[in-house]
Amino acid sequence: MPAFTYKAVGRDGKSQQGVIEADGLDIATRLLRSRGLTPLKIQEGSADDQGKPPSRQEVLSMTSELSVLLRAGLPLDRALKVLIDMDGQPRMRAVLNDLLKSVKGGKALSIALQPFEDTFGSFYLSMVRAGEASGQLSSVLDRLVEHLESAKATRDSVVSAMIYPAILLVVAVLSIVVMLGFVVPQFETLFNDMGDALPAMTKGVIAAAEFVKAWGLLLAILAVLLGVLFQRWASSEAGKTALDKRLLALPIAGNIAFEYEMAKFARTVGTLLGNGVSLLKAIQIAIDTVGNLPLKEGLDVLPPAVKAGKRMSVALDETGMFTPMVIQMTRVGEESGSLDGMMLELAKVFEDHVASGIKRLLTLLEPVLILTMGAIIAVIIIAILMGILSVNDLAI
Fold this sequence. Notes:
Radius of gyration: 30 Å
CATH class of the largest domain: Mainly Alpha
CATH topology of the largest domain: Receptor-associated Protein
Order of helices and strands: EEHEHHHHHHHHHHHHHHHHH
Distance between the termini: 78 Å
C-alpha cells in the first residue's frame, strides 16, 4: 500500500507530521480528517523517499514495462497511466505523473524527460528522441532495455566478485586483532619472569600485543581519520586522476579496468549509432559514461577530431592510450560502413574479457589473502608455543 508523508494541524492548533498508508491521495486525506487533523501538505512517499531519484533498477523496470505496453498498441498517455496505476514505487510514480502531465500537454516524451536527465541520463534521452524521430519508439525502448540490462549485468558481476575478497580481508584483520589484543595477553603473566630467556619471536609477538592493547583505540581512530581523509582526496579530481592512472598501470586489474570502461563506451556508441543518432552526438554521450579520468581525457580528442573530418580510429591511434584491438575494430567498422555493429561487437568481446579477467584475478587474490592471514596467525601461535616450551625447559 502506498505511503504518504503529511503535515497537518490538530484540533488543539498544534502542527503534526508523519506518514500514513492509503490506497490514494483522497483516501489519505479522508483518513487524516477522520482523526481530527486538517491536512496542510500531503506528498506521496515516506520521508526517506522524499528528494531521492528513482534507482537504476526502477528505471530499467519502467522502461521494460513501457516498451511492452507500447508494443501492445496502447497510446503513450494511456501506457503511462497504466504504469502509474501498477507501479508500487513512490519515487517512480511521482516521475510518471509528471511525464503524463507533460505528454497530455502536447510534449514529446523526450522533452518531458529532460527535467529528469540526471535520473535517466543523456544516453536514455537520445535513444527516446531517436525512437520518436523514426516512429519506432517501442522497438528503440526494447534495445534500450537490452543496453541497460547488459550494463547492469556487467556492473553486478564486478560488485559481486569483490564481495568475497572484501569479507575475507575484514575477517583476516579482525582475526589478527583478536589474537594480538585478547589471546596473546593471556600468556603474558606466564612469560613475565623469563626475561631474556624468551625466544626472539615470542618477544616480538608479545611486544606487538602490548602495542595493540595500549594504542589499539588510538590506532582505530587514526585509521578511521585516515580513511575519511583518503576518501575526500579520492573524491577530488586530482586524487581520482592519480588513482585511476595507478589502476590502469596494475598488471591484471589495470587491463580489467580498461576493458570495462571501453566496453561501456563502445556499447553506448554502437547502440546510439544503430538508432540514428549522429556520430558526433553518440561519441559525446558515450564519453560521459566513462568513469576513468585518464581514459576519459584520451577519448576527449574524438569530438574535435570528428568535427575536423578525421576518422575515429586515427584519432584513437594518435593518443597512444588504446589497444590495437580497439583501433583495428574501429577502423574495420569505419571502412565497412558498419561502425555501430563493430562497436557492439567490441563491447561484447570486452565484457567477456572482463568476466574472465575478474575470475582470474580472484583465483590469485583469494589464496594470497588466505595464505597471508594463515601465515600471520601461524607465527603468533608458534611464538606462544615456543614461549611455553621455554618455560618448561627452565622448570626442568
